[in-house]
Recover the amino acids of this structure.
């Protein structure tokens, strides 16, 4: 697909048969990749597709299997001998998802920590030289700030741009080498994503080659000239971004049409309200109201920081509610703590699985019965056998792939860890299940299973409130979606839902 | 601070989203029935096929794929062997130590006499009770450095109750335990309310307790007025076993029951593993932590009463010497039986190991400094071992899926 077209334009980066085996698994299988000079080339794929491995090999921090070949910026050689020094000499520059910038230091200091301080006699830092140099860079890259501004005072997007400048600063010409960006927008709030993409287009316009690694398809489509899709370590295709639809792209990534990814929505959702929220105030919330029905999945769409996570925590008694009223099954409900919420039949899967949900170093069994150990304590004895049988049953029922219930939970993959956390709650048959980004950092297969489990719970009458930043996912997984904006629910939309409509609602300006 | 906490810290440092994709690839064959509804199946055949092709030269898949292949079974057996080796290494070391001192000419005569063996058992009663009390807050991720001084205060206070208050034997003992529990209440409240690291809080209270003891006693031991029944208990025996050993056995049983057989024990482990997660599954983290300190204080109080019984005097100076040894024994104990977990049996074996070696070396003519030297080295070695073990496990857990998104 790239062969003939690749000949007439010079290549900034050319990779042949790049492979990597991790513990007997082919993480990357004979990858060929051509990046043309001056293009924005998106490298896309699900978790475990091999894109991170490819980037790490290009950076020289992971050694490829023998047989591959890398050529870039006048440097060429067998892939297994590629080193960080070679990558640097070839003009490859890497900016990672969480760039190592120092918010407490000034922009000038941040740049100098990457490129070196200009020094004079006795290793004295020549601040005036540094500040002049920084001012030039800031001007060239259109960042409205002075060199002495602390980096922390900048918007997140400008911090990312400073990280990019730091990676590029030691090159005089922008038309050599490749800038590799690994999930550059993952840490950015919604509106700032567009600003970064605009900046990237501007860099490309002056000749900068960019390899853009992401799992956000809409961004990749809007910014990239060409797209390479990886799946299970192999290249599926390299295609022009123009004329490529998001649906087609998902098919390439997943290997099957998207409709089948999410189970069909149950038509006979019961109509009674399980939970009502009236005028909830606290944190970013300024009077949010909603009601969720039995057997439905109610999505909450909102930008990062809109208060979507706080709303869930409030309902679970883990975040203070300054004003407002809740009812559960028609009765007043005021949980002062998670244990009170649990007693009322409410369950909560937090956003940060590692930090807030998993008991590290504990077995799958203990993670499953975390907080429910009291159920097994009868007549002064702990019923270990019953706990073990319940755990084994849950492992089967909730599709957890573990060797046994005694396996340590941190030995599981992200998807299976998440299924353990889900099982912890679903086995209690909750009235109301609150899910905050339940598929974050989960591969696409496990994601599908997680939605299967959620649907199974709603079929049994559980009411689910789902927060997800992936609007495509919300549109497919939910019966209704409430849009949270400016601290209030501004709209509730029903099926048929689509991501574009949600995107518009979420990003709609206050005045509208 | 505890091994549990170390694990939580390290694992917590892994950014969310960097999860291994091992799920689909390393799933055992019996997972295939489940997997036919999911995406991976389309490519699963390919991935599985290539995985199988390279398996013989690859590393084990972690714990997951060890099952079906012959090589996997052998590796699993080897790993099980390593586990058993780790689990019983301290017991083996204890056996070797006893053997060496039993055969070694310098020590064999004194060392193997039954009287001395019982002596070791009963002389360690105070330390065992302190250590078993200490592991309760340690499991929940807190450290109580005041236990030695709490025991010292308890022994002086109990002596004073007997000498000046003329209380009956049992009332005095209960009051001694109560003194320790009150210290635990203070520690617990400070840790929970101020939300400051327990290490700092209890380091402070330890010093304050010592100050109170010296102020009250003027640095002098309380010798007179200790009831004879208590003193004879300290040296007494029932069917040839020192009375204090029975107390230790009862305490060990209580702590074991608490940790392994009650929901409270499970809550301790949960809090020690991940406080935020524990809170979000409905565990009252503050209450669990507070109770842990009250318990460790109460056990320190009991240790103080035992100290008074065995030494025959309310000595204001000796209590604090126990703290570091108890911490060392707890860490050493976490390296055996339930590897990586603080546990009752391991702690007791650790204390015997320390005591046998220190006694043996003392008999061999080494001066008193060996006590501190040996304890210190054992503490550092135990922590180094626990850290290395953790790193190896983490490496094994991570190795199948280095490829993160």
């Amino acid at each position: 697909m790239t062969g003939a077209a690749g000949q007439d334009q010079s290549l900034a980066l050319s990779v042949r048969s790049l492979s990597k085996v991790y513990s007997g698994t082919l993480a990357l299988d004979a990858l060929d990749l051509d990046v043309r000079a001056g293009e924005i080339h998106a490298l896309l794929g699900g978790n475990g597709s091999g894109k991170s491995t490819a980037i790490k090999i290009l950076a020289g921090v992971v050694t490829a299997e023998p047989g591959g070949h890398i050529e870039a910026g006048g440097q060429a050689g067998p892939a297994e001998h590629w080193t960080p020094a070679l990558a640097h000499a070839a003009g490859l520059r890497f900016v990672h998802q969480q760039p190592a910038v120092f918010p407490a230091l000034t922009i000038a200091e941040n740049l100098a920590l990457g490129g070196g301080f200009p020094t004079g006699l006795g290793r004295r830092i020549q601040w005036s030289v540094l500040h002049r140099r920084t001012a030039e860079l800031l001007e060239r890259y259109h960042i409205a700030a002075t060199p002495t501004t602390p980096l922390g005072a900048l918007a997140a997007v400008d911090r990312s741009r400073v990280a990019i400048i730091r990676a590029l600063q030691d090159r005089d010409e922008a038309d050599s080498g490749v800038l590799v960006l690994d999930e550059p927008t993952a840490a950015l709030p919604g509106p700032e994503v567009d600003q970064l993409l605009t900046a990237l287009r501007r860099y490309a316009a002056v000749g900068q080659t960019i390899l853009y690694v992401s799992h956000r398809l809409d961004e990749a489509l809007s910014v990239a000239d060409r797209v390479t899709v990886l799946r299970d370590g192999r290249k599926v295709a390299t295609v022009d971004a123009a004329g490529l639809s998001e649906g087609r792209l998902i098919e390439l990534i997943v290997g099957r049409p998207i409709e089948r990814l999410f189970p069909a929505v149950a038509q006979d959702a019961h109509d009674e309200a399980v939970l009502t929220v009236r005028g909830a105030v606290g944190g970013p919330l300024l009077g949010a109201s909603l009601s969720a029905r039995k057997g439905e999945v109610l999505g909450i769409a909102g930008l990062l920081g809109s208060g979507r996570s706080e709303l869930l925590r409030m309902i679970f008694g883990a975040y203070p509610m300054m004003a407002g009223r809740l009812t559960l099954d028609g009765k007043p409900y005021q949980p002062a703590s998670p244990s009170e919420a649990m007693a009322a039949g409410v369950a909560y899967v937090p956003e940060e699985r590692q930090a807030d949900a998993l008991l590290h170093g504990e077995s799958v069994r203990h993670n499953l019965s975390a907080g429910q150990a009291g159920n097994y304590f009868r007549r002064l004895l702990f019923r270990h056998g019953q706990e073990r049988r319940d755990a084994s049953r849950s492992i089967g029922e909730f599709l957890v792939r573990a060797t046994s219930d005694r396996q340590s939970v941190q030995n599981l993959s992200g998807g299976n860890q998440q299924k353990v956390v889900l099982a912890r709650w679903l086995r209690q048959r909750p009235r109301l299940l609150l899910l905050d980004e339940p598929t974050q950092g989960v591969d696409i297969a496990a994601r599908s299973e997680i939605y299967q489990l959620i649907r199974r719970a709603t079929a049994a009458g559980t009411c689910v409130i789902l927060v997800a930043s992936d609007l495509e996912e919300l549109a497919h997984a939910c019966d209704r979606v409430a849009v949270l904006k400016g601290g209030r629910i501004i709209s509730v939309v029903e099926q048929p839902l689509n991501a574009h409509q949600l995107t518009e609602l979420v990003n709609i300006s206050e005045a509208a | 601070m505890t091994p549990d906490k170390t694990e939580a810290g390290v694992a917590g440092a892994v950014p969310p989203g960097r999860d291994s994709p091992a799920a689909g690839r390393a799933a055992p064959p019996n997972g295939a029935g489940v997997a036919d509804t999911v995406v991976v199946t389309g490519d699963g055949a390919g991935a599985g096929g290539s995985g199988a092709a390279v398996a013989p030269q690859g590393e084990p898949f972690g714990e997951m794929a060890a099952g079906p292949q012959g090589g996997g079974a052998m590796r699993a057996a080897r790993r099980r062997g390593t586990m058993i080796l780790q689990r019983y290494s301290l017991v083996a070391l204890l056996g070797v130590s006893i053997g060496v001192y039993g055969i070694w000419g310098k020590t064999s005569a004194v060392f193997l006499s039954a009287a001395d063996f019982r002596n070791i058992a009963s002389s360690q009663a105070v330390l065992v009770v302190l250590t078993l009390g200490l592991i309760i807050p340690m499991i929940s991720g807190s450290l109580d450095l005041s236990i030695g001084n709490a025991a010292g205060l308890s022994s002086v206070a109990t002596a004073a109750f007997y000498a000046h208050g003329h209380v009956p034997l049992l009332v005095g003992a209960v009051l001694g335990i109560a003194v320790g529990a009150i210290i635990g209440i203070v520690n617990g409240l400070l840790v929970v309310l101020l939300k400051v690291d327990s290490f700092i809080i209890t380091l402070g209270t330890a010093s304050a307790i010592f100050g109170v003891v010296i102020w009250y006693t003027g640095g002098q031991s309380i010798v007179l007025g200790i009831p004879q029944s208590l003193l004879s208990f300290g040296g007494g025996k029932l069917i040839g076993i020192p009375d204090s050993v029975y107390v230790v056995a009862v305490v060990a049983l209580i702590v074991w029951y608490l940790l392994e057989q009650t929901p409270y024990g499970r809550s301790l482990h949960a809090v020690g593993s991940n406080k935020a997660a524990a809170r979000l599954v409905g565990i009252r983290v503050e209450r669990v932590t507070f109770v842990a300190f009250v318990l460790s204080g109460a056990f320190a109080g009991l240790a103080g009463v035992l100290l008074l019984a065995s030494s025959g005097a309310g000595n204001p100076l000796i209590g604090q010497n126990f703290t570091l040894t108890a911490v060392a024994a707890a860490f050493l104990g976490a390296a055996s039986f339930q590897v990586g977990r603080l546990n009752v049996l391991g702690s007791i074996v650790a204390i015997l190991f320390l005591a046998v070696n220190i006694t043996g070396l003392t008999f061999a003519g080494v001066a008193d400094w060996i006590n501190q030297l040996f304890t210190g080295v054992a503490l550092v070695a135990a922590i180094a071992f626990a850290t290395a073990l953790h790193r190896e496990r983490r490496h094994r857990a991570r190795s199948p899926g280095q490829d993160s998104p």
Observations:
- Chain A touches chain B through 87 residues (CB under 8 Å).
- Residues 1-8, 263-269 of chain A have pLDDT under 50 and may be disordered.
- Chain A has four domains: 1-91+173-259, 98-170, 262-345+430-512, 364-428.
